[in-house]
Amino acid sequence: EQEKARALAQKEQEKARAAGEAAPAAKAEAGKAQEAADAEKDKEAAVAEKEQHGSSGAHGAGGTGQVGILSAFQATKGIKFLPFRKVLSFGKIPRSSEGLTVQATDLGDDTFKIFVSHRWLSSWWPGAGFQPPKLDHRPDGNDEGHPDRAGHPKYKLLVAALQRMQADGWIPKDDGKVVIWIDFACIDQDGENPADELNESMIRLVGLCDMVVTPVVDDEWPDGEDWEGFKSRSDMEGAVGGVAEGYKAKAWKEYWKRAWCLLEMLYAANVPFSLELVEERGFGGDLLGFVRDKSVRPHALFGTREFKLEEAPLLLAPLKDDVLATNDPSKGQLTSENDRSTIERHVRELLITNLVRMREIPRAVSEYGHAQVTEVLDKLADVHEHQCEFSHQADLLQEALHIRRRELGDDHVDVAATYNNMGVVHEKLGEYKKALEYYN
Fold this sequence. Notes:
By secondary structure, the protein is α/β, with parallel strands linked by helices. Helices cover 50% and strands 7% of the residues. The chain has 19 helices and 9 strands. It has a 7-stranded mixed β-sheet. The chain has a two-stranded antiparallel sheet with strand order 4-5. The N and C termini lie far apart (72 Å).
């Protein structure tokens, strides 16, 4: 009987011990459940608050002199791309009036986007493939220009470059997953000043693009005197300044003199580029290795030399910070001087972008004013949103909010719009309580 009593007592002690040990775990589980319930409640409240204010992204009244504070979706809406499939079937570089482009907002997240930076080659000619409209409203009175020339050599180089990159596994092999941005097709060529279309969208456009490609039509390869001693790939890549200096085609040297070409190249080098999603976006082969090693948006050069030797495109080394000072686009060559003020505006935007990148925002505000700086911060934030870097997006919007509150006061519509956009970002981060604070 005593033995049974001891066994029963021991059993009761073990049950009590087990219950004591389970209590903290049960308490922790209950705490987690409560946190989840609170988070769901915060989420529902944030969504309700956003819907109450109609906030799929804010649109301020632009009281700072800006066009307005747009959501990334709104700001991207006017940007168009040209599907590579349509490039192949059309047989030449199409003009905007052909209507072959698609809206950026209609493209899938896995679409590989290529910015074509190039120098226009000629005036319109009868075989160009379209009849140019009368452009009497253009004050310079020049004939319609064309990016290519008779025989369409640039078109052939561009197609060959992309197909070579597909064959080498650099970009998606599926033509339906590749689109290009080229000015002749993607900007309305019948506008009074087509370049104006880029005034608000250059940072966002470049931020959407995965790489830059420059086709170089070179009539002097291989016998031109400039090529003497610099004909091999290793010669060019090993030159001081890399391919940018070592590539000896006169047409490439002309590219460096053109204001728009310099501007595009500098935007590609300075607008943020994320390494987080490169494989998902279709980078592969040597291009993927280059991107991981250099941490920059790649810029590929493909000229007559590469075409005739059946070589892969050449990749430019990252541009140094002093390139903007030594190759100022605002002093570059232009076909139309009407574009000069547009170029100067973009150069200011680039200088502000550089100061933001170097975390010298107070200096940027001092030199360029709060309105221009906050506008650039909004655009860079949109780039990070496209690249799914929501924490970086939040950091830039916080800087913009701080500047606007200081300069405009808490009751200004642009401050309200920035608060709203901050709420959207924190909602994407799953920080619903913080999102609700900004919505309120």
